Amino acid sequence: MKFAAVVTLVVTLFAGAAGAENVSKPIPIGIAVAQTSNVALFGQEQMNGAKVAEKYFNISGINGTPIKLISQDTGGDEAGAINAFQNLVSKEKVVGIVGPTLSQQAFAADPVANRLKVPVIAPSNTAKGIPQIGEFVGRVSAPVAKVAPFAVTQALKLNPAIKRVAILYAQNDAFCSSETTIFQQAVKRQKLEIATLQKFMTTDTDFTTQATAVLRAKADLVIISGLAADGGNLVKQLRQLGYKGTIIGGNGFNTTNVFPVCGKNCEGILVAQAYSPLAQNPLNKAFVDEYRRTFIKDPPQFAAQSFTAIQLIVEGLRKVEIATKKKITQLDLATVRVELNKALRKGSYMTPLGEISLDAEGDINQHSFYVSKIKMDISGKVGVFAIVSVVK
Ligand code: 1QQ
C-alpha cells in the first residue's frame, strides 16, 4: 500500500471510530451560563433552575437512564462563552447545551455549536435574530418584540397622563439595542413623545449625564434597557437626582438580584415578565415547591426558563428513544445530537412557563405573560415582583 493510501485508511478508521462514539452514561447535558462577573446576577438564578430540573427529571430519567448537568462558566463576555461551548462540545461530549446568558454572548458562541451540529437551547436570549443564528439554535426565552410592549401598555393604564418619555439603553449590548428598538416603536405607537434618548455602557457606574438629561427633558416615563448592575445603578442615581415619574425596566431587571443594587429606589419599577411562580399548572407547582425547598424563595423568571430548557432536552431525548427504539446510550453522539434537535421542534410542552412549543426556526411560542411592579420592604433590601397584570 502506498503511503498516501495508508494515511487515508488510518484517517478514515479514526474518523469512523470517533463518529461511532456512544453517548456516555449518565447522559451529559451542558449548561454554559455566567457564574462570575456582573452577568452572574442572572447566571446564578439560571444555575439554580437547572439544578432543580436535574433533580426533578432524574426521578425517572430518560426511561431510567439518568442525566447529568455539566456546567461551564462563561463569565460575562463573548470569549468566555465561546470557550465554554467548545469545551462542552468537544471535551465533555454533551448531547446539547443550555446557554449562554446574554444575547451578546449567543451571537458569538452559538455559531460554534451550530457548526458542530450540537443543539443549543437559549434560556435567556431575547434579542431579535437568535433562532436565525442557525438550525441548531432554539430558545425558550420569549423575544423582546413580544414581551417589552406589555410594560408600556401597563404604564399608560396606571398613569394615562404620561406624555414625555426618556429612553435609555446600553449601546454595547446586543439585547439592550434590540430591546430599546422595540420600546421606541411601542412608545411611538402610543403617540407619546420621545423627549430624550440616552446611551450608556453596561460597564458604566456613573450615570449623572444621563440622569441630568432625563430631568432636563421633563420626562414623566423613563424606559431603561440595561443589565442588572448598570440598570440598577442608573435607577438609583435617577431617583437620587430627583426624578419622580414612572420607570420601566426591561428584561435586565427581571432578577431579584437587582434589589440590592437600587435598594429602596427599586420601588415601583415596572417589568414585563415571561414567568410567574403563581402560574397554575402541575409542573409549575412541582418546580416552585422544589425551588422553595432548596433556595427558601420563589423562583424568578431566569430560573424558570433554565428549568424549562432542561425539560425540553429531557423530553426531546425521550422522543429520540421512541423514534429510534434504542436507548440514548446505545446511539452514537452525532446521531443523538441531530435527532434531538429535530425532536425539540416537534409537539408542545407543558412547562412552568405554561404550554409552549418551538417553531421550525426554533423560536418559542408562548401564551402567558405578566407585568409586575417591584415592591421593596421597609428595610429597602428585600423586595418582590408584585403582579399588576396578566396578559394572555
Ligand atoms: C439577553 C437578555 C438578558 C437580560 C438576559 C440576562 O434578555 O441578553 O437577551
Describe the structure.
The chain has 392 residues and is α/β, with parallel strands linked by helices. The chain has two domains: 3-142 and 281-361, 3-Layer(aba) Sandwich (Rossmann fold); 145-273 and 370-391, 3-Layer(aba) Sandwich (Rossmann fold), CATH 3.40.50. 43% of the residues lie in helices and 19% in strands. Helix 8 (228-240) links the parallel strand 8 (221-225) and strand 9. Helix 2 packs across helix 10, helix 3 packs parallel to helix 4 (103-115) and helix 11 (301-324) crosses helix 12 (333-344). The longest helix has 24 residues, at 301-324. The chain starts with a helix and ends with a strand. Mean pLDDT is 95; it is low at 7-18. It binds (3S)-3-methyl-2-oxopentanoic acid (1QQ).
Number of domains: 2
Please state the structural category: alpha/beta
N→C terminal distance: 70 Å
Strand percentage = 15-25%
| Largest sheet composition | 7 strands, mixed
Radius of gyration: 22 Å
Residues in helix, %: 40-55%
**What value does the average pLDDT take?**
95
Named CATH architecture of the largest domain:
3-Layer(aba) Sandwich
| CATH fold call of the largest domain | Rossmann fold
Poorly predicted regions are 7-18
